[in-house]
Amino acid sequence: MALDKPYLNVPGTTVFDAEQSRLGYHLNQFCMSLMKPENRSRFKANERAYLEEWPMTEEQKQAVLARDLNRCIGLGGNIYFLAKIGSTDGKSFQQMAGSMTGMTEDEYRAMMMAGGRSADGNRYVGEDGDAQAHRQPQGKAGQRGAA
Amino acid sequence: MARITASVYTSHVPAIGAAIDQGKTTEPYWQPLFAGYEFSKKWMKDNTPDVIFLIYNDHATAFSLDMIPTFAIGTAPDFQPADEGWGPRPVPTVIGHPALASHIAQSVIQDDFDLTIVNKMAVDHGLTVPMSLMCGQPKAWPCPVIPFAVNVVQYPVPSGKRCFELGKAISRAIASFDTPLKVQIWGTGGMSHQLQGPRAGLINKEFDNNFLNRLIADPAGLAQVPHIDYVREAGSEGIELVMWLIARGAMADMAGGAKPKVAHRFYHVPASNTAVGHLILENGS
Question: Of A13, B36, B253, B283, which one's alpha carbon is 20 to 30 angstroms from that of A55?
């Protein structure tokens, strides 16, 4: 019998459960290795070569090289692990979180200053809130990317 | 006998630590947040305990995917602030209380909660940011701290109900320690926030304030709220709030004592991606 996973119908959200954790083990452990300064330097010197040392899937490696955090999460990454890539790049948590919405840094910061994203319309897949699939990407950064 | 004198609840956003460390607390963005902790720093000076039992979560710092314990109690004599990718925070070493920590472990495990005993563990912003918010920037922290790490990163995380019952077991354990120590229990993390995906940036003031109301007046009812409600209403990382229920479960009224006094309550949006909530509840003497 399948396990109950009620969180699968929350839009724009991937819950890092035991199944995601299994898919993302090597991806997340690669991220963890970036907590050591010597590994950060080696990664920055040649990202592809450093990634080749890890038994990650090619898709996971491409997602890391592209800094596509949504894709990384889809492939089993967890945000607290992926944050180590962001800190290696000198990015703040706000910049990382914002990058997954398609908004520019200024747009995302302004949304937070105005009280953050509303839960209304964003509780269940199929509503009409700004985090729903049919309303992606949000903001100017994403629109530029799509053009 | 040792006893719990008060419980403290606060968010532990890493950007707050960075703002303190970089001297930005009076900047317009941060000033309203730190104003909410002015009372708390004075209160902490006036009510310094002998030990803080500090509930927090590790953020892929001490625990990698090699191993993540659901509940881990730090029994070491000291704990170093972790390098989370940009060097360790310039804060004092955390001094532990091995005697009380191992007593609590012994008691709580026999009370059916399977704790992992940890003798070596770096502590990340989840623990050090609350210390900075409550104590400022001293050369040494004002008292020993027992770190208690809860897994809220890899699902399934413990339920609110289990956390609440664990708090009761911790309070029984502390009450059976023979040295007359004053202990504070702190629950940290939250409030509403989501750090991932197209729904990143979610904030739910109504949920958060209702949570604060119920934490004070109806903690047993609040403990029944299932995980999915936190995820849907307070964001995927809002689940950290279950840790507050451990501290609340340890208060005297949950074991037949008097209701706690609300010494301080504060709420602010935003700190980076997150809503900040803060409460101080005092047990009667």
Answer: A13
**Domain limits at A125?**
101-147
Per-residue pLDDT tens over the stretch A17-60: 999 999 999 999 999 999 999 999 999 999 999 999 999 999 99
Q: Which of B103, B125, B264, B278 is the catalytic position?
A: B125
Q: Which of B125, B155, B196 best probes binding to A when mutated, by most A CB atoms within 10 angstroms? A: B196
- A2 in any annotated domain: no
ipTM of the complex: 0.94
Q: What does chain B look like in DSSP terms, one character per residue?
A: --EEEEEEEE---HHHHHHHHTT-TTSTTTHHHHHTTHHHHHHHHHT--SEEEEEE---SSS--TT---SEEEE-SSEEPBPB-SS-B-S-PPEE--HHHHHHHHHHHHHTT--PEEESS--B-HHHHHHHHHHH-S-SS-SS-EEEEEE--SSSSPPPHHHHHHHHHHHHHHHHT-SS--EEEEEEE--SS---SSTTTTB--HHHHHHHHHHHHH-HHHHTT--HHHHHHHH-TTGGGGHHHHHHHHTSGGGGT-PPPEEEEEEEEEEETTEEEEEEEEE---
Check if B125 is active-site.
Answer: yes
State how far residue B225 is from chain A, nearest Cα, in angstroms.
Answer: 14
In this predicted structure, the answer to whether residue A66 has a pLDDT above a threshold of 90 is: yes
Total domain count for chain A?
A: 2
Of A34, A100, A123, the CB nearest to B200: A100
**Per-residue pLDDT tens over the stretch B195-226:** 999 999 999 999 999 999 999 999 999 999 99
How far A59 CA sits from the closest chain B CA (Å)? Answer: 18
For position B102, which CATH number holds? Answer: 3.40.830.10
Candidate from B154, B201, B272 with C-beta closest to A117: B201
